[in-house]
Amino acid sequence: MLDLETHDLHQERLQRVATLLKASGARRVLDLGCGSGRLLQYLMREPQYERVVGLELDGELLAQAKLLLENLPGSRRECLELVCASYTEPHPALSGFEAAAMVETIEHVLPEKLSAVEQAVFGEMRPSLLIMTTPNREYNPLYDMEPGELRDADHKFEWDRARFREWVSGVAWRNGYRVTISGIGDWDPEFGQPTQVARFER
To answer: Are 129 and 101 in contact (CB under 8 A)?
Structure first.
């Protein structure tokens, strides 16, 4: 059996998202649910970004992100803003960014809050491009997990591929986006890939 959620898989996720954001040509990027700042660390290496905002509700994780990024050169530090807040709520100052990322964060949201996420992120912030990743529940048996067991104690749910496709397709249709679904990690003929990816474009 595989080790649960390897470090290499997380790095692969971060690199894929960072590559997609860079290729979009975006100059202003949101990291929604930025956690301890690992994706921000990738983004701040790229001089094309003129403004990067990390949004994180957990103050402890945000403090870790500040520590991780404290040694940025002054010119880059001026481009970065860290905000302690939730993406389930509207933030008018964060509307109109060219791109946004939600990496392994949507599954930490209570299901009854998903409509609020849709309204705040896709209805009001409305980035031109958004890259979202989340676990594929079908892959969990390959991690030697019990039925119903979640990959992280703080996960509120994990979607199978059909449910993920249904949700992201509905969000895209209701908010004027088109969405492309793919995956990250080792492919299994029965269970697919461990990480699901949705690329929303407006």
So the answer is: no
Q: How does DSSP classify residue 2?
A: P
Does residue 2 lie within any of the structural domains?
no
Range(s) of the domain holding residue 187: 7-201
The span from the first CA to the last CA of the chain, in angstroms, equals: 40
- How far apart CA 39 and CA 21 sit, in angstroms, is 11
**Residue 123: inside a domain, yes or no?**
yes
Q: In which residue are the tokens 């003129």 written?
A: 50
135 found inside a domain:
yes
Give the chain's domain count: 1
Taking only the tens of pLDDT, the chain with its 202 residues reads 344 566 799 999 999 999 999 999 999 999 999 999 999 999 999 999 999 999 999 999 999 999 999 998 888 889 999 999 999 999 999 999 999 999 999 999 999 999 999 999 999 999 999 999 999 999 999 999 998 899 999 999 999 999 999 999 999 999 999 999 999 999 999 999 999 999 999 9
Angstrom CA distances, 137 to 84, 87, 153, stand at: 29, 23, 14
* Whole-structure pTM value: 0.94
Q: Is residue 1 part of a domain?
A: no
Q: What are φ and ψ of residue 106, in 5° steps? A: -60, -30
What's the CATH code of the domain at 197? 3.40.50.150
